[in-house]
Write a structure and sequence with these properties.
homodimer; 707 residues; alpha+beta; YbaK protein; 4 domains; eight-stranded mixed beta sheet; nucleotide-binding (chains A, B); aa-tRNA-synt_IIb (chains A, B); aa-tRNA-synth_II (chains A, B); Pro-tRNA_ligase_II_C (chains A, B); aminoacyl-tRNA deacylase activity (chains A, B)
């Protein structure tokens, strides 16, 4: 923005500041001289733009160091203060791109709410405590505006930019004290989290004490995911892809019974189609990836990669649906979509490309549409509860949290006990007639019997989707300090048979007999549909193999050796709870499938008990934040108003002096997760008050910090 | 390029032309004056840049009108001459981007072999016939070069740019005579192709006479595909996606038996990874789509969308494969890839995004790798022959045609009889150790028994893929003038039952009885695994329904009415050959599945007979081009040399005076399709000569014009 814009912006914030014009000042000396005529005392500032090392695929964040001209700042200090690596002076192109001005003209006043998200500010603590007005260039070096420290901070706050206050002391480069303290305490926790003597191949931190690190290790050491050189993208290895295939097989079979057919629409969307529905595109635009070049030629117009397919598909629905006889139209696709989020990415939970299915259906009536919404939502519940052994709560989203452009969003909400945060598990939307109006999807009213042309009806539409996030929720729910724990129904290997007790004293004959018997156990189990295999590697000890397969989450281990042979039994060891039970050799094909089903249901019950215990039903605001801080979600009487939801979010965010154990926890507050279908008791209008604003409550609503 | 570059280029082509420098000439008048001092007669040219209307997703082609200054040119004339729509003057940005010069400085000499592919030239016929030297600006308006018409044409030819000679007569805007004649004769054929009295819902052209139009109609009216608003991308509707699901189910089951596991790698590739293998990236780079922007932020470095996943996956193979015990590694993925081709796109056959599977495996030895290559290739043959009833020929690709960066490419080659062109059906590559060397995928030699460190072995790799092109080949092979013809094994609906003979004379009781019996026929067929349904719509006549389902390719129709009821029979009508056979009601569940299998095998035999009859085994060059021109492929003794292949291509291209019936036929010549595994007879070295160059032949090779 121009310097005029800056001054206008200051005025609109009621920041009244002296401003003078002078010759262009190419350096501090010239600037100081230009200001000498000014009668009040002042102090010069400087604003330096740095770029830290950024993964190539990431949009680089610009760091603006805003300091007194006299403060000694340098890249090393910036790295330390901002917790980044290899900062360098930003190129003029990058500065121009982010702030619209040349590096010489940059000032904190170049930051606006429009560009703030890609900028971080390191604010010199000496500047903060300065008593004198500070001189800044308002985006041009031929003007100066004098701001007090408080005025500057007000301005920065108005833009929403992240500000870190820093002591640029050449001697220590220390962070300000409070921040340092947080870091030290967090470091201590991480040291406690280290598991003593953890096997080299195993997880070396505890889930409860260093959850982010645990999650990374459990995925990579458990051999189901690898990190990738494009940020926010991950490799799904066979171990996790198999779970997705299991979910696909179940869900695909169920929707085909409902008359849904699969199709494939292109991954590319023209900007014209993408922008057709206004609310919808506003919801997705900031995250859309654009293809602008093919080979070495620029495309005449950039093409978007679908973030979802409403606007890809509905122009064609308008063409295909000609009569009420074409209804219902029920199409699904299994594909990947791209949402280039700038938030912290996390494997499975938040990735820039993810796999999902998206169903898009059209009906003549609202009633039919809503019936399908609920049917699909229950299939999503079944995926979580019956396949993944993960409990969820079915409910409806608040107006604020519903799908952009839709009418009603129903959801299955999950819960990650270790962080106490809710997580959206899958959503089934009734889009109402909003999209059919935008895209002109109409049929003639079949019930119209009057004269003249039949009136047009806009169809009722649904869309519904579930993603590979399912896998992340499952892993976070069941995994333990030894690694992954897979529910039997989705485990690629359900049973691993390991030879034991084969030492130097064992004769070759006995060894052969054990090996033969093991191969029979495996083939007998496979014959009854159990996914079993053996680990006959000579290279490794039984103990090593136990760790190896525990890490990978195999639900049941069977140990078998010469001693077992004599007793005609095997020893089964459950992954979920470590319980060891001998099973008669003759009963293996009967007992093992039963045991797997028991494990499946025990895992669900265990997870459900935890989730239930973490839903705090409360009616007083005083208990709201403490409940969240104790890693719960809360079920509260609520008025369903948007501004009350905003207010709850604000009032439940962490305070600046909060030294949270989980550094990655969001500083933002709680949001509504869902209004559960299963309401604890009827809310009588006028009798029960909203937990936050004391107006009449209309529902019980689940609130929580969330992913 | 600069004007110096232009003059150098002319010299290198041995085009010696007078050149003079003068003041910059902003218009024709100034130019004429600047040249007055020049002693020889000359005539001024003008070069105008137009851009026709272009689908937003396409790279726009620039049209350069090169004319005498006095010729009356305008956009309407350009549209007509170049067969495009809505041409306008190109923006200065576009001209600069394509030619590197400002519009005022443009001349035909701005065209180079590097930019020629995105340019078309409309050459004024008056200029062509000009006896005087013609004045051109060599990419700058302060210089003039004088060229004869022949010199100019030589220059243009050297760049490879497309040149259309045109009469810009204000009166007629007619094309030059020869071009006009071609068009007229082609128009006549198209009129013949119209099917007299074709039902409104049906295909209204004949397959043999207007194949491109027939193909478009059969896809859209057959309800399996729709055109999309991003060029080169298409919507696979349930009718075609079901075929893909059938292929997936078969192939996925087979490769899992071979120990292949599915995984999912990201669709994005960093440029660093993409460019790691040089030959490979050269093969794909011109077609790579680049994401450069997310939301409103430019990415620091563009990210490619995978055109294939070798370079996506192999850096991780290097990490995962640590020991010979990690081998073989066999991973497959079902995904979509993007190749932004600039050739004429065609649904299923050549699309910018397409669905496929790509298998990537690693072995310790070449022997194991090659075994898998052949096993997979035979699965591809089975997909074509056993599922799609499409004959293919298995063989190996020539060095010129093999996969970029690979060692050996095996292929199943198909054939489209209507155009007489070959088509690559699916490829299974042995990559050798090339990629493992580039990406450092090594294991220690397990056989090494010497002292010291074990030597490293580079693994042997394969990659193999088959795409949705399969569906296009199938449709082109079997479809007829009535629409699609699906082989029963891949048809979503195998049997359609249609009530017949229900007219005003039929009693309600009889009508109800027919309807009830039809519902039983359908349920009985479904019970024995036949995908059957009925069409009970009141709205339409049986005749309309016959057309409707014939268009959609349903393999078998069953007609049933009051008359059939009396005779306790149904009437079956085969889609493939129209044969009608009554079947006793009591035998329907037995006879229909048998009949479907007969249809499947008859369709294959029919297609195979045609293909076999179109493979001409010849040994004399004189018969080569005539055989191609009669819509055959040729099996010839060949020397396997690259330059001989180039030579064959050149010698078999169409001549300029060739007025081909199929306008879309490639003007390029034949290429090698494959060296069939099944060689007609041993070639004894020295005995048999290459069909083209008369050197010793080493193999029988299949050549043809191809897709």
């Amino acid at each position: 923005m121009t310097s005029e814009d800056v001054l206008t912006a200051l005025k609109s914030l009621k920041i009244y500041a002296a401003t003078i014009a002078h010759d262009t000042t190419p350096n501090a000396q010239a600037w100081r001289e230009a200001l000498l005529s000014h009668s009040t005392p002042f102090i010069l500032s400087k604003t330096l733009a740095f770029k830290p090392k950024t993964p190539k695929s990431d949009t680089p964040v610009l760091i603006l160091v805003v300091a007194l001209e006299s403060t000694d700042t340098n890249a090393a200090a910036v790295n330390k203060v901002m917790n980044v690596k290899d900062s360098r002076f930003a190129t003029p192109e990058l500065v121009k791109d982010r702030l619209g001005v040349a590096p010489d003209d940059v000032s904190p006043l170049s930051i606006t709410s429009a560009n703030a998200s890609a900028i971080r500010v390191a604010l010199d603590s000496k500047l903060v405590t300065s008593a004198k007005p500070i001189a800044f260039h308002p985006s041009a070096s031929n003007k100066t505006v004098f701001l007090t420290s408080a005025q500057l901070q007000n301005y920065l706050e108005s833009t929403g930019v992240e500000v870190v206050t820093a002591e640029f002391s050449a001697a220590t480069l220390a962070l300000v004290a409070s921040s340092e303290a947080t870091k030290a305490s967090s470091k201590k926790v991480k040291e406690d989290a280290k598991i003593e003597g953890a096997a080299l191949i195993g997880i070396d931190v505890k889930k409860e004490q260093d959850f982010p690190n645990w999650y990374r290790q459990v995925l990579t050491k458990g051999d189901i995911l690898d990190y990738y050189d494009v940020s926010g993208c991950y490799i799904m290895k066979p171990g996790s892809y198999h779970i997705w295939e299991t979910i696909q097989k179940f869900f695909d079979g169920e929707i085909k019974k409902l008359g849904v057919e699969n199709a494939y629409f292109p991954m590319f969307v023209s900007s014209k189609a993408l922008e057709k529905e206004k609310d919808h595109v506003e919801g997705f635009a900031p995250e859309v990836a654009w293809v602008t070049r093919a080979g070495s030629s620029d495309l005449e117009e950039p093409i978007a990669i679908r973030p979802t397919s409403e606007t890809v598909m509905y122009p064609y629905y308008a063409k295909w649906i000609r009569s009420h006889r074409d209804l219902p139209l029920k199409i699904n696709q299994w594909n990947s979509v791209v949402r280039w989020e700038f938030k912290h990415p996390q494997p499975f939970l938040r990735t820039r490309e993810f796999l999902w299915q998206e169903g898009h259906t059209a009906f003549l009536t609202e009633k039919e549409a809503m019936e399908e919404v609920y049917t699909i939502l229950d299939l999503y519940r079944q995926i979580y509860e019956d396949l993944l052994a993960v409990p969820v709560i079915k409910g409806i989203k608040s107006e604020k949290e519903k799908f952009a452009g839709g009418l009603k969003t129903t959801t299955v909400e999950g819960f990650i006990p270790t962080t106490g945060r809710g997580i959206q598990g899958g959503t089934s939307h009734c889009l109402g007639q909003n999209f059919s109006k935008m895209f002109g999807i109409t049929v003639e009213d079949p019930k119209f019997n009057g004269e003249g042309e039949k009136p047009k009806l806009h169809v009722w539409q649904n869309s519904w989707g579930i993603t590979t996030r399912t896998i992340g929720v499952m892993i976070m729910t069941h995994g333990d300090d030894k690694g992954l724990v897979f529910p039997p129904r989705v485990a690629n290997t359900q049973v691993i048979v390991i030879p034991c007790g084969i030492n130097a004293k064992v004769t070759d004959d006995d060894r052969n007999a054990v090996e033969y018997r093991i191969s029979r156990i495996v083939s007998d189990l496979c014959a009854v549909g159990v996914r079993a295999k053996s680990d006959m590697r000579d290279l490794h000890s039984p103990g090593y193999k136990f760790n190896h397969w525990e890490l990978r989450g195999v639900p049941l281990r069977i140990e078998f050796g010469p001693g077992d042979m004599k007793k005609s039994q095997v020893l089964s060891v459950r992954r979920d709870n470590g319980v060891k039970t001998p099973i008669a050799l003759s009963n293996v094909e009967i007992e093992v499938p039963k045991l797997l089903e028991t494990i499946q249901s025990d895992m669900f019950i265990k997870a459900k008990t935890v989730f239930d215990s973490r839903i705090k039903q409360i009616t007083e605001w005083e208990k709201f934040v403490p409940a969240l801080d104790s890693k719960n979600v809360v079920l509260v009487p609520w008025c369903e108003r948007d501004d009350c939801e905003d207010n709850i979010k604000e009032r439940s965010s962490r305070q600046p002096d909060d030294t949270a154990v989980d550094e990655k926890a969001p500083s933002m507050g709680a949001k509504s997760l869902c209004i559960p279908f299963d309401q604890p008791e009827g809310i009588v209008k006028g009798k029960m008050k909203c937990v936050a604003c004391n107006q009449d409550a209309s529902v019980w609503c689940l609130f929580g910090r969330s992913y």
